[in-house]
Every structure is written in C-alpha cells, then in structure tokens.
Request: fold
Amino acid sequence: MRQRMKMPERLPNERNKDFLQVNIGYTRKQMLEEAKRCLQCKKPFCVEGCPVEINIPKFIKELSDDNPAQAIKIIKQKNNLPAVCGRVCPQESQCEKYCILSRKGESVGIGNLERYSADWAAANAQKKTSPSDINKNGIKIAIIGSGPAGLTAAGDLANMGYEVTVFESLHDIGGVLRYGIPEFRLPLDVLEIEIGNLKSMGIEFILNTLVGRTKTVKELFEEDFKSIFIGTGAGLPVFLGIEGENLNHIYSANEFLVRVNLMRAFDFPNYDTPVYKGKNIVIIGGGNTAMDSARTALRLGASSVKLVYRRTENEMPARKEERLHAQEEGIEFITLTNPVKFIGDEKGFVKAVECIKMELGEPDESGRRRPKKVEGSNFGIEADMAILALGLNPNPVLPSLTEGLNTDSHGYLIIDDNYMTSIPGVFAGGDIVGGDTVIQAMGMGKQAAKRINEYLKNLHPTNN
Amino acid sequence: MFKIILKEELGQNVKSFFIEAADTARNAKAGQFVILRINDKGERIPLTIADTDAQKGLVRIIFQETGKTTYELGTLKEGGYIKDFVGPLGQPTEIENYGNVVAVAGGVGTAEVLPVIKSLRNAGNKVTAVVGARNKDLIILEKELREICDELLFATDDGSYGTKGFVTDILKNIIDKESVNIVYAIGPVPMMMAVANLTKEKNIKTLVSLNPIMVDGTGMCGACRVTVDGKTKFACVEGPEFDAHKVNWTELISRLSLFRDLEKVSLDNYKNNSECKCGRE
Ligand SMILES: Cc1cc2nc3c(=O)[nH]c(=O)nc-3n(C[C@H](O)[C@H](O)[C@H](O)COP(=O)(O)OP(=O)(O)OC[C@H]3O[C@@H](n4cnc5c(N)ncnc54)[C@H](O)[C@@H]3O)c2cc1C
Ligand SMILES: Cc1cc2nc3c(=O)[nH]c(=O)nc-3n(C[C@H](O)[C@H](O)[C@H](O)COP(=O)(O)OP(=O)(O)OC[C@H]3O[C@@H](n4cnc5c(N)ncnc54)[C@H](O)[C@@H]3O)c2cc1C
Ligand code: SF4
Ligand code: FES
Reply:
C-alpha cells in the first residue's frame, strides 16, 4: 500500500514565531496522489464516521480526476464550512478512523483533501449564491450565536428560502472559530470567506446583541420571528478552585485567547487591548484549548512554556496533530501532574505553581483511568504567567434569563428528538446542548435546520 | 454603529453622552452597564448606564477620562459614532422598599448612583446621598441629585464644598444618629472598602458595585473574577453588585493594577500621536 501523502508544514523553528499557518496545504500533485489512494469502497465506512455525512468517496473521485470544482460542490451539499473543517476537524477520530485503509496502514487524508477543495474554491472565486438564486418564502427565523452551529443552521435555512437573522453578543462573527482557535490553525481570511458566502446569501448579522438581556426570546417572537435556533456555545471557563487562582497573570484560556485572537493584543499598542507577555509560562490542561494557548503564548515570545496535564499524553483530548505540532515547536509536556496551588509575590503576581504528581488508577465513567494524587510528591514550577485550560461549561446567560427554557443539571439545554427545546419553536444545537467539536456543532445545526423547516411546514401547511 | 446624540461636559475630565441604542434603552435597569468599543482597534470597556430614554431609544453614559480609551471617547463629537455598544449587561440592582437608605458615591460614581437612587425612591425608600470629591470643581450632577434625593450631603478633601473630610465621616455621623436599613456605595475601590469597614461594625447591610477589569462582559473570559465570601464570582454576570462585607478587597485592588504599565504605554502613545487633541498637557 502506498503511504499517505504527508501534509506539508512549515519548520517548527520558523513557525513558532509568527501566526501564519502551520500547515501549508497539498500541492495539486500531492492532492492527486492522495486522492488516488482512495479505494472508492462500495460500502464507504468513512461516511459513517462523518457527522454531516459528506459523500466522501464521490468528492475524492472528482479530485482524483483533477476536478476540484465538482469536488467542492459535493462537499458543499453537506458542509457550509469546508475550509474550516478541513483544518480543525478531528478527522483521526471521525471519517479517517473508519476509512478501510486505516485497518492495514494509514487512512486516506480525507481532511487534507477537503481542505484542498475548499482552498481551491476560494482561490478560484466560485460564483457565490446570491439571494436572488433562492426562492424566498418570507418567513423570518432568528439564530442566536454565530459559532459553527449557528452559522450552519443559518446557511441551511437561508438555502431553504427563509429570511435568516443571526444575533451575536460579541462585536464579530464566528464564535470560537474567531475568538478561540488561533490563526496559525485557522487563518482569519479563511473564516471571512466562509462568512462572506453566508452574507451573500442574504443572511443578516446583528452584532452586539446579548439575547436574554439586549432582547429577549419573547421579544424575538413578538418581532415576528417564527422560529429560533440557539447556538450560544460553551463559553463559561472552568476554574480549579485552588489557592492563588486569582493572582495576577493567571488567565483562563478564554481570556487569553480572546485578548490575542479577537482583540489582537499581539499587536498592542497598535491595538488598544493589552495582554501580558510572560517569559516562563505554565498551561494547565490537555485539550485543544490548552494546546492553542500554549502555542499562542510561545508565539508572543515566551522563553519556556510548560503544559501540565494530570493524565498521560495518551489520554489528552487534544488532536494528535496539535500535540505533535506543539511539542515540535518547543512546548514541554509535564504529564501525570496537577497543580495544587499558585504562589504569588508580595504584589499579588504569580511566581510559581505548586504541583503534585499523579498516577492512574481504575477507569472512571468516561472509561479513562482516573488520576490519583501521589501523596508527598509536591514540587514547584517557576512561572510568571499561568493559563487555565480546564474546559468550558455551557453558557448560562440565555437559559437563566429565559423563562421556560429547561436545562439539565450541568446547564446544557435539553432538546427532544427534533432538536426542540422546552419552548415550542425554539431549537438548539452545538456546545450548548453538549457538543464538543466544530463538526458536531455543525451537524446539530444542520439537523435543527431540517427540523425547523418541518416544524414550520406543519404549522403553516398552506405555505408549502 | 451607534450614534452620539448629545454630548455634555459635566466637569473636569468628565463627559456625558446620550447614545442611540434602542434595544439597550428598552431593557436597561438600574445597576446595569454597557460595554463599548470605539473603533476597530479599540478596547472593550465597561461603563454604567447612567440613564435611559426608552421612548427615544437613548442610553446615557457618563465617564471619567482616565486612560487611552476614555480620553479618545471624550474626543468624539455629537453626531459621531461608536462602533460597538452592547448591553444592558450585569444583574440589575435589587430594588426593594428597605426603608431608610444611604447612597454613598465618590467621583464618577455619582453618575453611576443616579439610576439606583431613582429606582430606590420609586420603590418608596427615603434616600440620603453622600457624595465625595477632592474639591468643589470635581462635583458633578448636583442639580440632578437635588431633584431625586431626600437629602444630599457633600464631603470634599479640602473643605471647598460641604463638609471637609471623607464621605465615611459623614456616613459615620448618620449611622450613629439614625437607624439605616441599607447602604449602597459606588466609587473608587478604597472608598467602597472604607464604607464596608464602617458599616460592618454596625452590621448594616451594604451593597457595592465593583469595577474589575472586563473583556467580554458576558461571562465568557473570567477576567472580571472577584472573590466574594471565599468564592470566585464573575462580576459581569453575577454582579457587578455584591455584599460589601464579603468582598476580598485586597485581591480586587491587586487585580486592578494588572495592566497598569501597559495602560501607560497606550496612553502615552495616544497623546503623542494625537497631538494633544485631548486638550491637556
Ligand atoms: C481554543 C479552542 C480550540 C478548539 N479547537 C477545536 C478543534 O481543533 N477542532 C474542533 O472540532 N473543535 C475545537 N474546539 C471546540 C469547538 O470550537 C466548539 O465545539 C464549537 O465552536 C462549538 O460551536 P457552537 O456554535 O456551539 O458555539 P461557539 O463557537 O461557542 O459560538 C457561540 C456563539 O454564541 C455567542 N453567544 C453566546 N451567548 C449569546 C447570547 N445570549 N446572545 C447572542 N450570542 C450569544 C457567543 O459569543 C459565540 O459567538 C475548540 C474550542 C476552543 C475553545
Ligand atoms: C461594571 C463597570 C462599570 C463602570 N462604570 C463606569 C462609569 O460609569 N464611568 C466611568 O468613568 N468608569 C466606569 N467604569 C470604569 C471604566 O470601565 C474604566 O475607567 C475604563 O475601562 C478605563 O479605560 P481606559 O482605557 O480609559 O483606561 P485604562 O488605560 O484601561 O486605565 C487607566 C486607569 O484606570 C484604571 N482602570 C482600568 N480599568 C478599570 C476599571 N474597570 N475600573 C476602574 N479602574 C480601572 C487602571 O488601573 C488605570 O490606572 C466602570 C467599570 C466597570 C467594571
Ligand atoms: S473508507 Fe477510505 S478508502 Fe474507502 S471510500 Fe472512504 S476514504 Fe476511500
Ligand atoms: S468580563 Fe469576561 S467573564 Fe466577565
């Protein structure tokens, strides 16, 4: 079997100093070679692993015939944000995991091929859908939150002819795609192109609107929105609740990434928002958020970045590619270790993190072995900055301000089989109902769009 | 874009804007704030909603020029625009009929206390306002205050107006003489802390409106965290008002100093580049 075509990437020592893309993308030749590896299975397992059910063999076939224009059309039937997914989806645990080739060797580089198709489309300016291409039905739908869940639902509903308005609390569109995932993984112009496509379909974006406060769900119905989709994400950072956690220069990953990505603090004072640029930095956590924070901190000029994680590298939730990239760039992983307290100087600035060694015990509910403290193994790591990347809880603002909108005990919105919340006509998807990747959010956005359409058709059968 | 409908200078370095923001105006309650960003390169800063005109869709903000963003804001003109303006944010003040209320304000806190006093009065309270400033020239909004308070007392550091001394001196007199049901304080942190210490002795319930550094103002970043009663709270969604006797003041003071050096870089940079449009130096 031929080996998988490696994604070309920039050298670690060059890329860890700037925010330009790490992965460069296949050349045409590389793309053709990789696309030809696909066996065109009659029963393609890869598709079963794709949350939005892209017809993978079919788009790859078009690529292998050197026909990216056709390939992107096939992808776009299922996925409005292919340039994003081709970059950030955890393919190794989705489509590529099920690819038949992975049983004997390396799966087809499905994600890399998806990215190729999307980038080709951007470079070759495909004709955009314009509002006049769509048969408008005049029915208004509101989308709350402009992350991948909201954007996907918006795109699909607009395609069906609905008048879609997206409300976003921040001053810019994209959710985590903009404020969380750094540009070296997902460049802004890629995101802007995707958003531009949605705008050209006639979708309206209203920023600076925290639904619940600026406008309520009830008011949206009064403004004649017939159905509402909630995609407000998981935006509540988790803290450890340990001593010294609120010392100066201890950030949540969200604050750090928002300052750098959304507010462009790396370019301070040209941009007004500051961020502290630490020298010796400790990151706590092992997910994508931790990797992104660590690599961003390095790019701001840190001399040492240590990532502290309580289990082993095998259990880290971050994508394998990101873990490898982080290590190549010089991030040191300190595994089986957990912080117990932060130590500050007399002015309240962090100067060290006291940690304890851990060992793995019996598996817990998640199936992963539960880490246990090794008593007496405490040790200190010097640090002038720490970033907590311990995960995110569902954003409670909207549910807490909306009467009748039910959540479970963890704060996730409860939805039924039709993606509908406890309020009739109000649907939800993405991290706010318990998703945790971009593609899951998109998958739920798609499903919800379908159900919203069915719901409205049933309400107004005459409109059919 | 959000239009500046009316601009006023209330005093030295203190300005007031009425801004067109109908949704915010309609839903705002006393104690809430907005976050604004002047332009594409700007920082997001929180400012209290000092007043609203729901009919005309206007929100009033009153701010003191302290750093780059507030100075730049001060240079904007009537008819001009602010790029981003989101609100109302935060929990509204819990308005009840407490009975006898003392509202203590310092500096630009005077603006922030106005809507609270109005609501408290509407709920049937007797409100005494105690306002502090360094000197007479720094007192703002006296006329508005006179209209809405049952009683109004001033303290200046140099005695140029009202009593010479601190607001806490006046407050002490009041609580020694009469029974006060609740104290509401808003202003510089040292002032709020001093009020808290004073009322704690007498066990008088005291609310303060905290002003930690914020970024998003929607509970997403944790920048605004304060320790209250030993627990971490996000001031932007769980506050900004808290029980003054339970706030960890040392931590708040320390966290407010976070970016002091960088903020100075920013302001100096701005003043040098703007050829002193800010009208001082
Ligand atoms: C740093 C980081 C890196 C990640 N890396 C990856 C990765 O490599 N691959 C991957 O698949 N996943 C990754 N994820 C996870 C992925 O980003 C999320 O699962 C996904 O973004 C969830 O999408 P969403 O649409 O549900 O919500 P979000 O992307 O969180 O968007 C929600 C939006 O709603 C807005 N909002 C919230 N409340 C309101 C309100 N009341 N009114 C109006 N607007 C509101 C928010 O401002 C936000 O813009 C990462 C996450 C982070 C934080
Ligand atoms: C909920 C809330 C409501 C507020 N309401 C008002 C208001 O109605 N009117 C008003 O004038 N100000 C108000 N503030 C304070 C205001 O947000 C700050 O003055 C502003 O962010 C300063 O920005 P800057 O860029 O001009 O100054 P910076 O350059 O950021 O700072 C200049 C100086 O101000 C201090 N500072 C920075 N941020 C704050 C802050 N959040 N609170 C106090 N001091 C700070 C800094 O330590 C520094 O010394 C409020 C703050 C909060 C959190
Ligand atoms: S499973 Fe692998 S080889 Fe088979 S069609 Fe899918 S990508 Fe091609
Ligand atoms: S300002 Fe970000 S959580 Fe409060």
